[in-house]
Amino acid sequence: MSEGVRASRLRTGRRALPAPFARVLGRAAAPARSARRAGGVLAAAARRGWEPVGAVVSPYGVAAVVVALAAWAAGLAYSWLEVLVVAVLLTASLAAAVVFVLGTFRYTVDLGLATRRVTVGDRAVGRLVVGNASARALLPSVMEVPVGLGSAAFPVPRLRPGAEHEEVFTIPTRRRSVIVVGPVRSVRADPLGLLRRAVTWSQPQELFVHPVVKSLAGSSTGFLKDLEGRATQDISSSDVSFHALRDYVPGDDRRHIHWKTTARTGQLMVRQFEETRRSHLAVMLSTRTADYADGEEFELAVSVCGSLGLQAIKEDRGVTVLVNSGSLRGDHRTRLLDDLARVELSPSKARLADVARVAAATVADASVVAFVVGSGVPPAELRAASARLPQDVSVMALQCVPGAVMSKHSIAELTVLTLGSLGELPLAMRRLADA
């Protein structure tokens, strides 16, 4: 059998049919395939046609249409007068509802926030200005402004051509968060709520509610204060802290040759240095739900983390903030506070020791590491996390327990500070520095 004949067979089940049967079956299946394609096209067209209708008709409207159709069918079929009255009333209500949502929208909408960034408890104010950009008067409508998980509705009266309507509203800032304000939607609906037509007029905006922080200016925060850095045990061929002299090796920088010793010994000698490390703070904020007794502990921990980070940025020192899911931006105070506004608790399986292991690998230049945790972290876990860090790094832990008495204790070489409120942080840092 030739390859062409073998390739022309149609395989069905376990056996292959000869080419003539395959052609017959193919011609027989063609109408079915065409019908499926036509059905798919009709279904897609129906979906496209229903989309604008479904966007306007509310669930009550759908129920009213279904009941009206059923009432017309039953009333006409059985000459049931009462059911025909219901059908007429529903049909009239639907026809009247159409009048409420008809017409074009030509609004100019300006949504603005007095400030995009506030602190918890501060007043946040928004301003909504709606104008009529058409040449004729616009009927009354409602402007809906989603604010976080809620929504605010502002009635807009009848606007003459060129007229404007202004609304000023306040946004609650009782807790740290990022609140999405908008987009603004104009809504027209009938009194019965059968039809509802909404048009979006603006883009959403973000309002950052920053955590409360405490200034640590004037109190020693435990950071290294030397101007040139702290000398380590690591030997470097180029730094500022002189260590010793050694024999010249090809490839060494000739600028570090010690000529006096070379002239005295008759052999090239180069300087060796102790590597110095600039003051760099690494803050590890635990975001694991099990590490905190409640949300109040976590909010205190976020405020402590922000206070430490902002002080390091203010003193122009390096800062890295790590959480269980990654790192936050510590290059600028605003970016750090923006990221802290987004931080939330999560049921992460990564413990503090796992975060410390990542920090040891990614923040190798850290000179001070601060663990910021809640009351759910046991001493053994704090000790295990401290053991993951290099020995030449200063490590401290700040355990946030609202209402607790400020105290300090040690777990091996790790110093643990217990804070009952954010106001105790400057005093706790001074006690740590005096120890």
TrEMBL record:
Pfam families in alphabetical order: DUF58
Domain DUF58 residue range list: 245-326
TM ranges: 57-78, 84-107
Keywords: Membrane, Transmembrane, Transmembrane helix
Name the record gives this protein: DUF58 domain-containing protein
